Amino acid sequence: MVWAVRVEKAGDPSVLSYEEVDLPEPKAGEVRIRHTAIGLNFIDTYFRSGLYPAPGDGPFTPGNEGAGVVVALGEGVSNVSVGDRVAYAGPLGAYSEERNIPASVLVKIPEGVTDEQAASSMLKGMTACYLLKKTFKVTSDTTLLFHAAAGGVGLIAGQWASSLGATVIGTVSSEEKAQLAAANGYAYVINYKTEDWVARVRTITGGRLCDVVYDSVGKDTFPASLDCIRPRGLWCTFGQSSGPLPDINFGMLAQRGSLFATRPSLFHYIAERWELEETAADLFSVIADGTVKIQINQHYKLKDIAQAHWDLEGRKTTGATVILP
């Protein structure tokens, strides 16, 4: 028996139940890992609330990323060994002391990267990686706007984009978060609670606007995000922390200058094993060499996971959060 968090029925954080569950031996192709650290992500709240359907029927264990030590191997596993430090992003099931997981989704954690850094950056860090290097190839000629700049993905993306030489603009909801974003790569930080952020973007860019807007907020920043993009620029909507987007009239893209739009997901960018290994290696390299510092600003015990969700959805957290089994 191991302790894990279970959800019987979708709802608010009160539905998260901390209980003992049976854990069978790993099947062929699976690995059992003992978690040392677990990541917390906004996508976890989508599965808990029912906004995203959980796979299968009946109760499930949430959580999309974690790190730990391999303690047992199923038949046919050759890419990791017992005792290896490993990390992953997906599938669901991270909110647990131990779990069985397909060996194919695991990557080894290299020297120079801690378990907590890996657990709190696999999903957020690989998301920043594909957004900046694949969805739109950010260079020193790029001007970009990143909403939720003081969030987990935002702090990583700000540092990384700055290291690429881009002009990096971010939006935040408080002065405290503005200071945090400014310390993590954002040349310009806009408090959208007190400023007209579209007008500020226009002023900052001298009317030229942005090559790309990265938007994980959703309802509250639409359609104003489109007004920050120059003709033939890209609107990248990759989350909906404020609520789902309304139905979109694609004529809005033409009216604003033949804009491009995409709704990407990390798991389509790491679907092939080589893509996962390449993206994880890219992330670990910038962590290890100090280009990107993982801001772990909150710790919670696994048994207190409901409070972590309340705080995350209440926008009381900044940077990354680590859950300790």
Overview of this structure, please?
Residues 11-323 form the Enoyl reductase (ER) domain. Pfam families: ADH_N, ADH_zinc_N. This is Quinone oxidoreductase. The chain is α/β, with parallel strands linked by helices and 325 residues long. The chain has 2 domains: 2-120 and 295-324, Medium-chain alcohol dehydrogenases, catalytic domain (Quinone Oxidoreductase, Chain A, domain 1), CATH 3.90.180.10; 124-266, NAD(P)-binding Rossmann-like Domain (Rossmann fold, 3-Layer(aba) Sandwich), CATH 3.40.50.720. The protein contains 10 helices and 15 strands. It has helices at residues 42-49, 115-119, 122-135, 152-163, 175-182, 197-204, 251-255, 266-269, 273-288, 305-313, and strands at residues 2-7, 16-21, 30-39, 65-73, 85-89, 98-102, 107-108, 143-146, 167-172, 188-191, 210-215, 229-237, 260-262, 296-301, 320-324. Strands 3, 4, 5, 6, 7, 14 and 15 form a 7-stranded mixed beta sheet that branches. The chain has a 6-stranded parallel beta sheet with strand order 10-9-8-11-12-13, with helices on both faces. Strands 1-2 form a two-stranded antiparallel sheet. Helix 3 packs across helix 4 (152-163) and helix 3 (122-135) packs across helix 9 (273-288).
The coarse overall form would be globular
Task: Briefly note the structural class of the backbone.
Answer: alpha/beta
How many structurally independent domains? 2
What fold name goes in the CATH topology slot of the largest domain?
A: Quinone Oxidoreductase, Chain A, domain 1
Number of strands: 15
Low-pLDDT residue spans: none
- Radius of gyration of CA atoms, rounded to a whole number: 20 Å
Q: Helix fraction?
A: 25-40%
> First CA to last CA: what distance?
14 Å
Counting DSSP H or I runs of 4 or more residues, the number of helices is 10
CATH class of the largest domain: Alpha Beta
Q: Major sheet: size, sense and barrel closure?
A: 7 strands, mixed
- Secondary-structure element sequence? EEEHEEEEHHEHEHEHEEHEHHEHE
Name the CATH architecture of the largest domain: Alpha-Beta Complex
* CATH homologous superfamily classification of the largest domain: Medium-chain alcohol dehydrogenases, catalytic domain
How would you state the average pLDDT, rounded? 95
Strand content: 25-35%
